[in-house]
Design a protein that fits this description.
Elements (H helix, E strand, L loop, with lengths): L2 H30 L5 H4 L5 H28 L21 H17 L2 H29 L1 H9 L28 E9 L2 E9 L6 E5 L8 H7 L8 E6 L18 H19 L4 E6 L1 H12 L4 E7 L5 H18 L3 H10 L8 H14 L12 H9 L6 H22 L4 H4 L7 E6 L7 H10 L5 E6 L6 H4 L1 H21 L1
Parallel strand pairs: 3-4, 3-5, 5-6, 6-7, 7-8
Antiparallel strand pairs: 1-2, 2-4
Helix pairs in contact: 1-5, 3-4, 4-5, 5-6, 8-9, 10-11, 11-12
C-alpha cells in the first residue's frame, strides 16, 4: 500500500481526534469566559428557536456528510486515485464531508445549548477551509482542466439554495482540448406539447444517440445522464422526458394523445429536430423497457432516420411477458420459502389481472424486485437506484420531483392496457438497419428469454444479442462500464461509418 493511500485510510482517525480536541478546547474556553450555556449567551432568542435551528442543521448536513462518504466509496476514490468524483452530492459541493461534519457539530451544539460545541464546529469549519485550499491545489495538478472546470461550476462548501428551485445540468468536464462541448437542458414543442430533452457531449460533431426511457412514465433523464457520462466523449447523448413523464408531465393533460401511436410520432419528430439541429442524417436510437416498444416500432417504420436500433430489456409480447414474470417470481418465492411473498402473489393471482389491475401489477413488481428479477444485485428492485438519482438530480426542481411520481402512476393508468396488447413478433418483425439487443440474464420484468426468441425471429441486415451475466432489467445501469464499452466498440463504428458515408 502506498504512503498516500495509507494516509487516506488513517485520515478518519485523525479527524476524530482533531474534532475531539477542538470541542474539548472550545468547551474549556467557553467555560473560562462563563458563556458555556448558549441560551444565556443569546438570551434574546427563545430556546426553541436555537434547538429548532440545531435540528434543521442536523437534518440538512448529516445526510450531506454521509452522502459524501457514500459517493467517494462508490466510485473507489481512495488516496491518490485517478477518479474524480463529481456525481451525487458532489454535484452541489466540492467538499461535502468537510461541510457536513462541521455543520453537524454546530447543530448538535445548538440542540444541547452548548456554546463550546458550537464554537468547536465553527473552528473546525475554518480549519477545513485551509485544508480545502491545500487539497485543491493537489487536485488541479492531478486532474488539470477537468478539475478547474468542476471547481468553477461547483461551490467549495455550501451548496447554492437555488439548486432546489432552479433546474439545470452540470457543465461538461473536459481536459481543455475541445471547445465544442454542449450541456443543455431544453424545452421543445413536440406533438403539440412542451417536452424536455437533455443534450450533452464533449463535441457537438459526435454522432447522436437518443435514449427512450421505460415506464410508461418512468423518467430516466438524470440516471441516464449519470450512466452515459463516459459516452459523452464519443456521442452527442440525448435523453428525453416523454409526454407525461418527469419534466414533461404536463403533457399528460392532453389525454387524447396519450397512446402508443402518438409516442411513435413524438419520437420521429424529436429525431428530426435533433438531426436538423446538429446537421446529421441519422442517429442511434436506444429504447429501454416500455421505450423499447416505442423504439422498435419507430426504427422499423422509419429506418431512413437511424443508424441502428439498440434494445435494452426489450419488450416483445407484453401480455405473455407478464405471465412469465409472475410465474418466475412465484417459483422463486416458493424455492426460497418466502411465505409472505407467496401469499401476496397467490392473493392477486396470475395475470391478466381483474379489478384493481394497477395495484396488483405494482405488488407483482415489488415481489419481482425482492427476488432479483428487476435489479439483480438488490433485494428491493430498482427503487433505491431511482430514488437516489431523483434526489440528486440537478435537472429537476422540487415540482419536477413531485411530477416524477405523478407521471409514473398517471402514465401507467392510461397506457398500460394498450401496452398489454403489444406483440412485436407481429408488428415489428423486420428492420432495415442493424439491431442490437442488450439483455440482462436475470431480467424477468421484460423476460429476456422472450427477447431472445424475438431476436431470433426478426430480420435485419445485421443483428447481435449481447448478454449481461450480472444484470436483470437495467444492464445499462447494473453493468454500466460494460454497456458503455459495447456502445463505443460495437455501435459507434456503425454510426461513425455511416455518417462519413
Amino acid at each position: 500500500m502506498s504512503k498516500e493511500n495509507l494516509k487516506f485510510l488513517l485520515a478518519p482517525f485523525g479527524v476524530a481526534v482533531g474534532i475531539t480536541v477542538f470541542i474539548y478546547l472550545s468547551t474549556q474556553v467557553a467555560a473560562d469566559f462563563g458563556i458555556s450555556q448558549l441560551n444565556r449567551l443569546l438570551a434574546f432568542l427563545p430556546e426553541w428557536i436555537l434547538i429548532g435551528l440545531g435540528i434543521a442543521l442536523l437534518f440538512m448536513f448529516l445526510p450531506i456528510f454521509l452522502g459524501g462518504i457514500y459517493y467517494l466509496k462508490r466510485r473507489g476514490a481512495v488516496g491518490q486515485s485517478n477518479v474524480l468524483v463529481t456525481n451525487g452530492i458532489y454535484q452541489y459541493t466540492r467538499n461535502p464531508i468537510y461541510i457536513g461534519i462541521s455543520m453537524t457539530i454546530c447543530g448538535i451544539g445548538l440542540i444541547l445549548l452548548n456554546t463550546g460545541v458550537v464554537f468547536g464546529g465553527i473552528a473546525w469549519l475554518l480549519l477545513t477551509c485551509i485544508q480545502c485550499k491545500r487539497e485543491e491545489r493537489e487536485l488541479e495538478i492531478r486532474f488539470g482542466d477537468r478539475y478547474r472546470c468542476y471547481k468553477k461550476q461547483t461551490p467549495m462548501l455550501f451548496p447554492h439554495a437555488r439548486i432546489l428551485f432552479r433546474a439545470g445540468t452540470p457543465g461538461i468536464l473536459t481536459d481543455g482540448s475541445t471547445t465544442k462541448c454542449i450541456a443543455l437542458l431544453e424545452k421543445v414543442r413536440i406533438g403539440g406539447s412542451d417536452q424536455w430533452i437533455l443534450e450533452r457531449s464533449e463535441d457537438i460533431d459526435n454522432p447522436i444517440v437518443l435514449y427512450i426511457h421505460g415506464g410508461p412514465g418512468t423518467s430516466q433523464l438524470t440516471s441516464n445522464r449519470q450512466n452515459t457520462r463516459d459516452l459523452e466523449k464519443y456521442f452527442m447523448v440525448a435523453n428525453w422526458d416523454q409526454r407525461g413523464a418527469g419534466k414533461s408531465y404536463d403533457a399528460i393533460k392532453d389525454a387524447g394523445r396519450m397512446n402508443i401511436e402518438q409516442f411513435i410520432d413524438d419520437t420521429r419528430e424529436l429525431t428530426r429536430y435533433l438531426l436538423k439541429k446538429f446537421r446529421k442524417e441519422r442517429l442511434v436510437l436506444v429504447g429501454h423497457s416500455w421505450g423499447s416498444v416505442i423504439g422498435a416500432l419507430t426504427a422499423s417504420r422509419y429506418p431512413e432516420l437511424y443508424h441502428c436500433y439498440v434494445g435494452i430489456g426489450q419488450v416483445t409480447n407484453a401480455e405473455r411477458g407478464e405471465a412469465v414474470s409472475y410465474q418466475w417470481t412465484l417459483g422463486q418465492a416458493k424455492e426460497r420459502n418466502d411465505r409472505r411473498t407467496v401469499r401476496a402473489l397467490e392473493k392477486i393471482g396470475p395475470p391478466p389481472y381483474q379489478g384493481n389491475w394497477q395495484k396488483k401489477t405494482i405488488i407483482e413488481r415489488r415481489c419481482l424486485g425482492k427476488m432479483g428479477g428487476e435489479f439483480h444485485s438488490s433485494g428491493t428492485g430498482a427503487f433505491g437506484f431511482v430514488i437516489r438519482n431523483l434526489i440528486f438530480s440537478r435537472e429537476y426542481n422540487l415540482n419536477d420531483r413531485l411530477n416524477f411520481f405523478r407521471g409514473v402512476l398517471g402514465s401507467m393508468k392510461i397506457l398500460w392496457p394498450e401496452l398489454l396488447k403489444v406483440d412485436l413478433f407481429e408488428s415489428a418483425q423486420e428492420f432495415k438497419i442493424p439491431v442490437f439487443f442488450m439483455e440482462g440474464r436475470f431480467d424477468y420484468e421484460s423476460p429476456s428469454n422472450l427477447a431472445a426468441d424475438y431476436f431470433g425471429s426478426l430480420k435485419a441486415p445485421s443483428k447481435k444479442l449481447i448478454w449481461f451475466e450480472n444484470s436483470a432489467h437495467m444492464p445499462n445501469a447494473e453493468e454500466r462500464s460494460l454497456f458503455n464499452s459495447i456502445m463505443v466498440e460495437k455501435v459507434l463504428p456503425i454510426a461513425a461509418g455511416q455518417e462519413a458515408g
